[in-house]
Structures are given as structure tokens and as C-alpha cells.
Specification:
This protein has helices at about 5-10, 15-20, 20-30, 35-65, 85-90, 95, 110-125, 135-145, 150-160, 180-190, 205-210, 215-225, 235-245; strands spanning about 100-105, 130-135, 165-170, 195-200, 225-230. The protein is of the alpha/beta class. It has two domains: about 5-55, no CATH class; about 65-245, Rossmann fold (3-Layer(aba) Sandwich). Strands 2-3-4-1-5 form a five-stranded parallel sheet. The protein is elongated, with a radius of gyration of 24 Å. InterPro entries: AAA+_ATPase, DNAC/IstB-like, IstB, IstB_ATP-bd, P-loop_NTPase. It comes from Azospirillum argentinense.
Length: about 260
């Protein structure tokens, strides 16, 4: 057997990572005095690790995350209303496997989008397809597709991923027909795929957000049926940094009177 043809055979078998690192890996096996079986395991581990990393990078690209955020980079000390154990449990992605919804609620700047992206990245690592979209971008795309007669195709696009992340519901006004379009998407994904939604409005305000309390109730009925709801109560990270820099003054807490109880 001609060992010179080994790289060519590895390429034909599409073991490109193994082909490119073959000499280095064989040198490592010799240095560690590995048996033939152990050497084969070392070579296979290298190829599997390469394919897994390539899969993750491809999944992250398809997800279209607007920035890189991780759970390790989240400042839980700054948001004491959050339970780090609960977030770590969510990072295991059992809720994604079950097709549940996750709602992250709270005022601007408390880290909802950070957590949404971080949990989305964890879902990719666990092997799930993910798509991230801003709420206004989503509704605009659905409205345009509706006008152009392509709504079914657009709904299928947003329904395809195992986890759909819709960021920032309630920050900007929606299209007049937004509630009906979003309802169709939620219905399409109901008990089939997971949704992660962030909002600066409590669910009781979604009727105002969508401009249609009846349809908003139907949306929430489906989202909340199998769901995890996390409300973050705390200061904005951005405003806190400005206060530290002396750009904003910290206002004293108002006195509590009988009328405010």
C-alpha cells in the first residue's frame, strides 16, 4: 500500500480536516506512544471536532445575530431580579426541544437582547436551527409579502427554524395589520417550533402594542400555553455606565406618601 496516496484518499472520503492535520496528529500519536486503536481515536476526534465547529459557525451565520453575546459575559450581579440557575437551565435548551416559548420582559437596557442572543447561540450549539429578527423588521417583511401575494412563502421562511427569536416588541409602532400577521406566524409555529420574544411592555399591554386587543389575546393564548416568562427588574446598563462616567446625575428616590401606596 502506497502511503503517499493517503491524503488523496482522505480527500475523497471528505476527511479534509484529518488530511490537513495528518502529519501533526501522527507526530502527536508517536510522541504519546499511542497504540494503533488510540491513534485512530485521536484522528477521528480531530475530524469530529472540526465538523462540529464548522456546523456551529454555519448555524451562527444562518441565525443572523446582530452581535456576539454570551452567558459568560452577562453581569448577573447587576440584575439581582434574575436567577442565574434558571438561565443556566434554559441554556440546556430543553424548552427548545419541547417547542416552548420564552418571553423576556423588562424596561430598556436591562439585558434582554443580550440574553436572547446568548440563549440563541446555546441553541445553535445544541444542534437547533435558529433565526433572529427585530420585531419591526419581521412585521414589515410580513406586511410587504402580504401586499405582494407572497405571505405564505414568508410565513414558511420564519416558521422553518426550530427557534425564532423576535427582539424588541413594543419599542416602535407596528403596521396597522401587524396583529393579524403576527398571529398567523405564531399559529404556524404553535407546538411545532419555539419562539423567544423580548419586549419592554408587559403582556397586559400587548393589546395596545398591536392595536388590536382581541388578536393580541389570541397571540398570547398560544405563546403562554407552553412558556417560560422572565421579567427583569433593574437599571439600564447603558444609563448606569453614563452615571459612572458622571454624564448623568442619580436622582434621589421619591419620598413614599400615602397617595403613592
Amino acid at each position: 500500500m502506497d502511503a503517499d496516496h493517503l491524503p488523496e484518499m482522505l480527500a475523497r472520503l471528505k476527511l479534509t480536516a484529518l488530511r490537513d492535520r495528518l502529519d501533526t496528529l501522527l507526530d502527536e500519536a508517536a510522541r504519546r506512544e499511542l497504540s494503533l486503536r488510540e491513534t485512530l481515536a485521536l484522528l477521528c476526534e480531530a475530524e469530529v471536532a472540526h465538523r462540529e465547529e464548522r456546523r456551529i459557525q454555519m448555524g451562527l451565520g444562518i441565525a443572523k445575530f446582530p452581535f456576539v453575546r454570551t452567558l459568560e459575559g452577562f453581569d448577573f450581579d447587576a440584575q439581582p431580579s434574575l436567577d442565574p440557575k434558571q438561565i443556566r437551565d434554559l441554556a440546556a435548551c430543553r424548552w427548545v426541544a419541547n417547542g416552548d416559548a420564552l418571553l423576556l420582559l423588562g424596561p430598556p437596557g436591562v439585558g434582554k437582547s443580550h440574553l436572547a442572543v446568548a440563549l440563541g447561540r446555546e441553541a445553535v450549539r445544541h444542534g437547533y436551527s435558529v433565526l433572529f429578527v427585530q420585531a419591526t423588521e419581521l412585521i414589515t417583511a410580513l406586511a410587504r409579502a402580504h401586499v405582494e401575494g407572497r405571505l405564505e412563502d414568508k410565513l414558511a421562511h420564519y416558521a422553518k427554524a426550530k427557534l425564532l427569536i423576535v427582539d424588541e416588541i413594543g419599542y416602535l409602532p407596528f403596521e396597522p395589520n401587524a396583529a393579524h400577521l403576527f398571529f398567523q406566524l405564531v399559529s404556524r409555529r404553535y407546538e411545532r417550533g419555539s419562539m423567544l420574544v423580548t419586549s419592554n411592555r408587559s403582556v397586559s399591554e400587548w393589546g395596545t402594542v398591536f392595536g388590536d386587543p382581541v388578536v393580541a389575546t389570541a397571540i398570547l393564548d398560544r405563546l403562554l400555553h407552553h412558556s417560560h416568562v422572565i421579567t427583569i427588574r433593574g437599571d439600564s446598563y447603558r444609563l448606569r455606565e453614563k452615571r459612572r462616567a458622571g454624564l448623568l446625575k442619580t436622582n434621589p428616590a421619591p419620598a413614599v406618601t400615602e397617595n403613592t401606596l
